[in-house]
Amino acid sequence: MMSEDFSSLDNRCEQMSLAMSSVESPRSSVFTFQSSVHSCHVLRCLDEQRRRDLLCDITVVVEGQSFRAHRSVLASCSEYFTHRVSSHAPQGLVITLPQELSVMGFEPLLQFAYTSKLLFSKDNILEIRQCASILGFRDLDSACFDFLLPKFFRTSSSKLPFQRKSCCKTRCRAEDHGSEVLVEDTEPKPFSDSAVEPVVGGVPCQSNQPANDKPGRHGGNPDPRPEAEIQSDAQTDYSLQCPKYRKFQLACGKERACSGLNLDSPVVTKMCCLLPRPPNPACLPCPGRGGCRQTPGGNTSQLLHRPVEEQGRADEEQGRADEEQGRADEEQGRADEEQGRADEEQGRADEEQGRADEEQGRADEEQGREGKGGRRMLDERKIEADKRNINQTGERDECSGVDCVLSSLPPMEVCGGKSNRSQECPGFIEGTAGIEAHQCPLLARLLDPGPGLQIPANVGVRAYVLGSRGVDPAIPVSSQPQGQRGKEGVEEREQGGERGEYRWGGRSRVEREVAEHLAQGLWSELSCSPRLHGSPQGMEPGSGNCQGRSPSTDWLNQLDMRSNPGRCPFHHALDRGTGSGTEESQLPGCEVSSNSERSPCLSSLTSGDDGDSDGFDTEGDSEVCSYIQRAKEVQLPFSVSRILGLSRNEFQLLLRHHNLTREQQDFVQDIRRRSKNRIAAQRCRKRKLDCIHNLECEIDKLKAERERLMSEGKQLSQMQLNAQHTVSSLYQRVCSEAALRPEQLQVLAKYSSADCPLSALISSTDPPIPGLGGLLQPLACPPPTCSLISSDHLKHSEPPASFSNDTPTEEELSGDWTSTQAHDSDQVTDAPPIEQCDQHRC
DNA sequence: AGATTGTGTCATTAC
DNA sequence: CAGTAATGACACAAT
To answer: Is the dihedral of CA A511, A516, A522, A527 positive or negative?
Structure first.
């Protein structure tokens, strides 16, 4: 426990140190430790108290049924209870709810108040909403239900409201079969088929959706802070992080904007949501650079982009925005809390990173023992990582920036069911888990590592959790529905995923770097690979135009939250990080996507200030397409991505196996060489940035150290003055009590420095002692014997024989007072020596 | 066993 | 800012 706390502290040490640097005196530094689990812990304890009827001070009667609770909790969640409680006696309060409220509607709300999770189903969602509306549950405002209800109760006419992508047109049909609200148990459906699909395509998608709700307005923005402020927070954090992954984390910052900063936002989490994702080539992602390039850029930003006709509703939206702004203060606290949670999450990620590095070190040692050089092994390991990532690039790249979420969070465990992270970063998990695994490529990737990997099908998708904060830490992971599927899923993935490295949490640093690179740089090349379209064998010649629509983005398109993006916390979270996200990039041979097919998530993740979106418009894209074209021309029998992912030996085997022509060999080697070099250049630049950042940090530390030393010097100077003053007073007192004669004082002054307080006792006007001459003047460097003078000696003992004479002896005058002192030392042995003059003086 | 050579990879720089 | 080519250094295997 302590170690965890300290690890968290360690992760913040830099911030703390920087904070110190700003404080003039280190002794006055003030540190702040923000616990991200405290609130959860408190809430959990309150819930336990409620269950045990401990400290409950209110009884809520609904339909004759009584519920014990804490008025403070209810009042903090409900405006209704706030008013009722404040107007009642402090003890024994019994509140009977209006008749229109039911147990079915209130009980989940009560549970929500204590757990941040709302269990709901189609049967009780309306009652819950009514209850929430009447009781004024702040975290379950209409935005939430406006978003959910249409998914549950949309009409059949809105089943397939928008133009579906070609690859899924025939298969992805909206199916709303009675109570099977979200999905069928056995057949995967696109996100549009889920209950959370808003109706689009011109059809009024949500009957209870306010007409003025429109994308970009974020009416349901749970975090009312200005976007700039949020961004600023994120940037501030990232600026404190290692630059090696700064950009990466900057992208994650967007993710965090959707996951971390929006953890408060109610998101849908489906329990037992692990559904089979049978291989469906027709619906498999189309990661083609062209298609997917355009998918992230085009698809994504489409939903983000506010349609022109909706601009006319800006005024109406403004009113809602103002209303939302009113909740800013309340939400601010929660946002800060979640920010702390995000920071802690980052700390854990760093921990895992460290462990991964250790594992890699061990692996390298093992490989080193296998005979080959460590470097070579490392290379091959990287290549393996490349390969693995290439194999997984579909999911990573298809979500592009979404992988940042994965990287910043522990990946597979999230949906894998181990769910440690689910407790650590519940917001994200719920935020993502709210989407059907097979509908969201991100989740699908979490649940389905790749082709050929089967995930055990779970059934029983009947209940959902609407969580505003996260998974209840009190609930054991194993007891949570996700846990049922987790282990199996992970094992399955490990079987099919080579060594299971697709689990990001277990990836080494190198692998992550390579994966990062692949996500950034090789996306285009890999994305066009038909293997990612469901053809694991690789790209088919001539398939460079990626005509197929990526089903991985279908879930976004089908979700199509344009109808109410602000109402969808998930969407909004993704949307927020990117600004307009209107960048469109179109690659040659890539199907142009309409605005309606844009994906806000992808847009937000691939566009933005990090310039990723620009990357899609770079010459490299055309290069990639030229690669594809070139591969087509040379009739390359395997995928270009396959070239990049193979180790050296595997690559050679591949060349041998395929009996390539000279032209083909040159081509693949050229591709491979460029790819390697590209990766190397990226690493080099990253290192350079890292080095610069480290130097900057070093400069900051040195500046702080300089400030600290200067402050310390001032303090020491002040202490010296005080000490001198004290000593001077002491000298004066001693001399006055000893009633030294001026001659004696002069003798003392002789052996005192100019700044010795004793010197001040001797007036410059005092007549010099005859025979002393200038020797009676204070000396700059007194002999060490001065220290032998005891205060007691001065005070109580008889002065030395020499002192008894009015005229010092020649021996004294010649400076041989030492012997005299030594001779008389027996008189002063019992007395502590006076503070050494030279000590105070110097 | 040591030196030489060829090959592959990586880091770096310049464009 | 990113990709690419060129270059040097290094490691490894074969000779």
So the answer is: positive
